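Running this now, will post back.
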Amino acid sequence: MDNVFTVKEIAEILKIHHLTVRRYIKKGKLKIIRFEGNVRITKPDLEEFLKKSAKGSKTSLFRKFF
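Update: finished.
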């Protein structure tokens, strides 16, 4: 499926540890969908997460990736 990422793929895109991605999910900062029993993140949900995180940050992750 296009525009749907695994936790590992998101970690690689953002250059962070996969457990950090899971912490964002657990805290409700990053929305997920369940697909065939697995966790997936859609591109729109990733973009929304990056926009929200950019508001409180001096550097914009959103501009870096999109």
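The radius of gyration is 11 Å. More later if anyone needs it.
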